[in-house]
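Limitations
The structure tokens in this dataset are predictions for the assembled complex, not deposited experimental models. Users should treat interface geometry with appropriate caution, especially where small molecules or nucleic acid strands are included. An illustrative entry is reproduced here so readers can see what is and is not provided.
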Amino acid sequence: MPERMIKGPVSGTQRLSAGVAMLVARLSRFFLRLFGRGATALPGKLALKISPDLLTLLVQQRLVFLVTGTNGKTTTVRVLCSILLSEGYDVITNPSGANLDTGLTTTLIGERKKLRRAPGKKLALVFEIDEAFFAKLAADLKPSFCVVTNFFRDQLDRFGELAHTRDLIMKGIMASEAKVILCADDSLCASLGQKIQHEVFYFGMGQEGMRPAARSTAGQESAFCTFCGTRYTYQAVSYGHLGRFSCSGCGYRRPEADLEFVVSQQLPQSLNLKLNWRHNQVDAALPIPGVHNAYNAAAAILAALAAGIPLERAVIALARVKAAFGRMERFSVGKKDVCIILVKNPVGIDRALEFVDMALDRGGLMFLLNANDPDGRDVSWIWDADFEEHVLDSPVGVSGVRCHDMALRLYYAGWDRDNIMVNQQALSLFDHLLERCDEGKCLYILPNYTAMLDLRARLAERYQLKAFWQ
Amino acid sequence: MNPSMSLKIAHFYPDLLNLYGDRGNLITLMKRCEWRGITCTVQAVSLGQAFDASQYDLAFLGGGQDYEQNLLQDDFLSQKGQSIIDAVEDGFVFLCVCGGYQLMGRYYQETNGERIECLGALDIYTEAEEKRLIGDSVSESRHLSSAGYDPLLVGFENHAGRTYLGKQVQPLALVRKGGGNNGQDQTEGAIHNNTYCTYYHGSFLPKNPGMADLLIEKALKRRYKQFEQLMQLDCQMENNARNYLLSCK
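Predicted assembly:
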């Protein structure tokens, strides 16, 4: 059995232990499912105990894409998968959250039919990788392509400092011979491509789509050159610290982008883009709103281009993309809409608030703030988000374990204290806000990670939404 | 109301020291002034700019990532150092958090034994250890209660440095939960004259409105000799957020 799932060289002992490992994993998965458990990690954990190089064996000589970075991983993976599927590939991807070696091994064992592919069928593995585990997994998986979306401050109590996160990703890149796809507008992300021998591709926003740079960089992240420490100057910015940066100290500047995009139109539920790839310009429609998602789509398209897929065909697939689980995900309840926007860090909240501020159909707003391990236990980051810039007058509710911290943040940002509903029970707050939401309007929900998983599971049960792996 | 009063705050290196919601401390000072009709302005004092304490009533020094903190070390010591030392001795009101707290001390010793010279405005020193002190924290400050404020301080701490206080410096508070200055002697933070230091962020002042008011009061007293006391504000929202941390084991 294993020899049909493993491509490339494998020794007799490896074959034997891999076979036993997969059998044990499948049995454990069977029993976990029998008892109603999700089984996303344990089967892989058992398998790796028996055959430590199983993951490496299963992926060797295959087309592997790894996607990492602070924000946009899930959406980028989703867009890339949809392009690859429409190109006729079989695609294996990991459910969000299952991005350790154990989760990936479980995923692969569950997809053994695709691994034993039929002749003539192409197979691509597209994995979302947590920044903290990228170095190890890139060494194990030897990817053909690495996509790094961006670097923003995120969960400093878990990841440590941004420079440290960048170094971890660099280590992973150095452990592979992958083609590397980077964001040109992010000085920290683009710096990864400056001194390496790998083939590097950059995506970024065209200057005509950016805003003039503000004079002050106060409060901005990564405002100083990562190579020499001089303060960057900006010709133009798109959002956060993304823009046309240059350093007068050492000459490091935003690299020329191989794939450049401009958002030609922002619609409530979609974006129109102009894409430019090596002097070949095409129009594209992305059925997910939010300028940050234009970056994610560009990252995915560029990975596809680097893999040899023509731009015109990639763009056609783009039109069929749906928002990922909890990321600008929208559904209807009777004549009202609900839109869930995951917000995990200051720049995420800023993007979401700007979007909700512009939304003409805003009928209510709900924040959920948890402080469990996957969220980071430190909630101080909410003070770095620009709530002051977007004081909204629609009905507002806050929930989650740290709801009172969020209420306090809104109050100090100048939001009307009497208009802020605080309720630890997320579902009953949701019901209340939905009731107050007018017909034809949309209730916008901005949760952080575990709060999103929790509320969405309850809403999925009630409204028959798809489970998160679908 | 406290009519026609104003307060000027110096914010040190806002482009370099802006970690862990430090901004929340300034937002809190500004809002609590604004709600009392006190005009409050904040001015950045960053790289290459001198610090003239006579132009301000209060100064805030926050924490940064190592990369950014290294960029300002020279500027802080040579460009601003002496005027900060003088201001501390003169009773100028400072709030220093985490990295800023460490910078005010004599030195910071890395885990490899290498010493980074700091300002020496306070008789304290810091030695890093591998294991970071991370988590929600609570401490009790007699200084606050004797000034008529709620003695309990809450926050989130995250630091590798262990700070030890010299004889001329008082602890800001005594630890009830968490690591505090060094995980050993139960002290948290430091006070010297009107300079207040703490390892708490999360942010510090929003959930410790008494501390915010104490700083505002001290600063106004220095500026307005006739000033007596601050108008009381309703702290229900602040207390709700505090109570969550106080109720956690």
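Some entries come with short summary sentences. For this one: Chain B has a mean pLDDT of 94.
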